[in-house]
Amino acid sequence: MPYARVCLVTTCAQNCNSLPLGPVNPSERKSWNNILIHTGTRGSIEIDSSSQPGFISDYNVVNNRFARNETFITLAQWRALGYDPRSILNPGLATLFVNPTAANYHLRTESPAINAGVAVTGVVNDLDGNPRPQGLRYDIGADEALIP
Ligand SMILES: [Ca+2]
Known about the structure:
- By secondary structure, the protein is mostly beta strands.
- The protein has 2 helices and 12 strands.
- Mean pLDDT is 83; it is low at 7-21.
- It binds calcium ion (CA).
């Protein structure tokens, strides 16, 4: 069965399990501005080749681990397939977030996710209800850092 699976760490949950997307609408086959970190052994995105046509992924924070057809590949191999050219390699949860051990997934002031995203039509607020973007560009993830 075609599938695309992503692993999310957002402000809504800690250490989310893989989220099976199943056969998805082609217009919904985008992964932009997501923090896709699995703290275990799964890939940031796992996909089978029949689900690749139309799938777009970029401007994410990712691990150096993906999977295609149940085979793990590196970010470089994933990029060679045309995905995530501008995405950021996970620098570590403590570098990204204020206090991930206490489930505070707001972006640290120094987080490389700040201003590293892309404008997404219809996404006008972050998870806290703050308007986005703030600063130069959208942030990656569910939180938009409020930087003076
Ligand atoms: Ca921003």
